[in-house]
Amino acid sequence: MTSYTSDLMRLLDERGYIHQATDAAALDALAAKQIVPGYIGFDPTAPSLHIGSLVQIMMLRRLQQAGHKPIV
């Protein structure tokens, strides 16, 4: 388990969302300094949403809980 300084990365790590990251230290530093937007490209009103979309929706919620900006 890595020690993160940002609330976002700490929350994602505690919840098991991070398996691998190309540059987790840079993302951690960015999230500690400024608001990070997160985008998921699906239509939440579409009839084709399925349980697989739930992980992405949960990820955006965690982003929002850490004070960042989810975009759908």
Structure in words:
There is one protein chain. The chain has 72 residues and is mainly α. It starts with 6 loop residues before the first helix and ends with a strand. The chain has one domain. 10% of the residues are buried. The protein has a two-stranded parallel sheet. Strand 1, helix 3 and strand 2 form a beta-alpha-beta unit.
Number of strands: 2
pLDDT < 50 runs, ≥5 residues? none
For the biggest sheet, the summary is: 2 strands, parallel
- Provide the gyration radius in Å: 13 Å
Query: How many separate domains?
Result: 1
Termini separation: 30 Å
Mean pLDDT: 90
Q: Counting H and I runs of at least 4 residues, what is the number of helices?
A: 3
What are the secondary-structure elements, in order, as H or E?
Answer: HHEHE
State the shape. globular
Question: From the helix content, strand content and strand pairing, which structural class follows?
Answer: mainly alpha
